[in-house]
Amino acid sequence: MTSDHEERATAWEETFRRFYPSLYRALVAVLLDGELARDALQEAFVEGLRRPPPSDHALAGWLFRVALRRARHIRGFRLPLRLDELVGSLREPEIPAETETLLDRLALGELLRLLTRRQRAVVVAHYYLGLTQQEIADALGVRRGTVGATLSQALSHMRRGGSHVF
């Protein structure tokens, strides 16, 4: 018979396998750095194994938020995590060649590049991870209305600036 700890570890490994691909691509789209996304996501899963989230509700959102926090810690500078902190944040970084290649494979890679980091985070969480506006708000620590407004602004920006993509 296995111990409770071993059962939790096995369940967490299944969670890792299920969410890793989509969360990794979502983090690359937001962070524009594949290596940072990989490291941050790995640390988020380790944190979840050490201190599991209180519930399985919106687990992808919890992992996304923890990975963004870990990215800020790994990078050693202030990587904005909350939507209200994202406004006026660091200027967009140069996109490394390997990240550019990965983004090109994303169906909306071109459109995502048109967005601010804040808008990318909300669009990716909503459309790629399938989180509701309330789940995104809970994960990022903001109000649902802020998520809705950000999503609306991002879609409008994508419509205006994305006519050359299609």
Question: Please, could you describe this protein's structure?
Answer:
The chain has 166 residues and is mainly alpha-helical. It has helices at 4-31, 34-50, 59-75, 83-86, 97-105, 109-113, 117-128, 133-140, 144-161. The model is unreliable at 78-93 (pLDDT under 50). It has one domain: Up-down Bundle (Butyryl-CoA Dehydrogenase, subunit A, domain 3). It starts with a helix and ends in a 5-residue tail after the last helix.
CATH topology: Butyryl-CoA Dehydrogenase, subunit A, domain 3
Describe the sheet with the most strands.
Answer: none
pLDDT < 50 runs, ≥5 residues: 78-93
What share of residues are in beta strands?
under 5%
Evaluate the radius of gyration: 16 Å
Number of helices: 9
Work out the number of β strands: 0
The best one-word shape is globular
Compute the average pLDDT: 76
H/E order of the elements? HHHHHHHHH
CATH class category: Mainly Alpha
Oligomer: single chain
